[in-house]
């Protein structure tokens, strides 16, 4: 079932890209109309997709997938963008894209399993230390609403948001220890990170809505009216998006794939409820970007606003997640025009979406670097910290050929390989 789902996701995503209906890379979406409307040839578009996505697949998607043996969706859908746009968009090209995309998905899943088997056979264990890469992410993630508030509304409000989140987290920890959430013989343990995250998001939304209502100046632009023909183009492909939503939601429920590093790490630890909340928070951050680019270009994202990942994690059955995922995608497409009008009415919310993405990225860069350093130290005590620090500063000096978010995971894997080579050479003992 897992293999079939991954192959279907790869096949459908490649077809959507091939036909110019949907691409995953947010930076590629605004370029698509250039080709669709005849101002860019297919070869140039394919080369652009390769340049924008290939490094992220190898440097971000696959390394983070290896830390938890769950496929990060970027490793699949960035690849299918390249596949779909590299094959001609004609009568034989679309079936070819489906076949190649399905094979690519299967190859990723088999390759991940193959890496796990190889790692298990090595004298220096990589798998258990690599789990530490995501450990700081779970706790550090709750700081992103405070950073988003500080970016948009000033450091004062950011500090208040951070303090409120920290207080709520510690209050929940204390309440759990005192078993205050007991009902008869049943004791409920409330997740402190989840409630702290909700608190921070509440502060952010209140500030954003307040700013929006105070800045109305009568100069709104109706995106839907301006790009009505492109919105209609997305609606014409509603069934395709529903199929994609159902497949991804079911796959996420089975823990075959995840939509972001935070929910991936939480799901790997068995915390599906918390992972679902994290996925929902991320979806709120990406909603303005996806909605705006979809309306302006007529090209949607194969995962929509990414709420399908939250649905997959929160519902109890895979088939139910699949049905709900299809329904969510249908609602997103049908409500696209109304959502655009809402964002026009509340520009502060639109701006908050951009700041949420920036804040998430910065928090993840720090958390994954710390996690990567801890994992590297576990595989090669002392040497691991040195190598990760060196990798980071040299990457910065070289102009960041590896995105900062991937430095920790890639560095940890590299240290594991180096540690095993040193053990084989007899110049390092196996860490105890």
What do you see in this structure?
The chain has 432 residues and is an all-alpha fold. It has 2 domains: 1-123 and 216-345, no CATH class; 129-211 and 356-425, no CATH class. 75% of the residues lie in helices and 2% in strands. It has helices spanning 2-18, 32-36, 42-68, 73-86, 93-121, 127-130, 135-140, 144-153, 155-177, 192-214, 223-226, 228-236, 238-253, 261-268, 272-297, 307-314, 318-334, 336-345, 347-379, 383-397, 404-425, and strands at 71-72, 182-183, 186-187, 257-258. It has a two-stranded parallel sheet. Strands 2-3 form a two-stranded antiparallel sheet. The longest helix is centred in the C-terminal third of the chain and has 33 residues, at 347-379. The chain is globular and about 60 Å long. The mean pLDDT is 83.
**Amount of helix:** over 70%
Q: Rg, please?
A: 22 Å
By DSSP (H or I, 4+ residues per run), the number of helices equals 21
Q: How many structurally independent domains?
A: 2
- Sequence of secondary-structure elements: HHHEHHHHHHEEHHHHEHHHHHHHH
What structural category characterises the helix and strand content? mainly alpha
Low-confidence stretches: none
Give, in spatial order, the strands making up the sheet with the most strands: 1-4
Gap between N and C termini, in Å?
A: 38 Å
* Average pLDDT taken over every residue: 83
Strand content: under 5%
For the biggest sheet, the summary is: 2 strands, parallel
> Shape, please?
globular
Q: Can you count the beta strands?
A: 4
